[in-house]
Amino acid sequence: MSRNQGRREGRRARFEVVLVEPKIPPNTGNIARLCAATRIPLHLVEPLGFEITNSQLKRAGLDYWEFVEVKTHGSLDSLIAGLDPRDLCLFSKKASNSYLEAGFQGHELLVFGSETVGLAEELLGSYPERSFQIPIIQPAVRSLNLANAVAIVVYEALRQVGGLG
Question: Are 96 and 133 in contact (CB under 8 A)?
Answer without folding.
Answer: yes
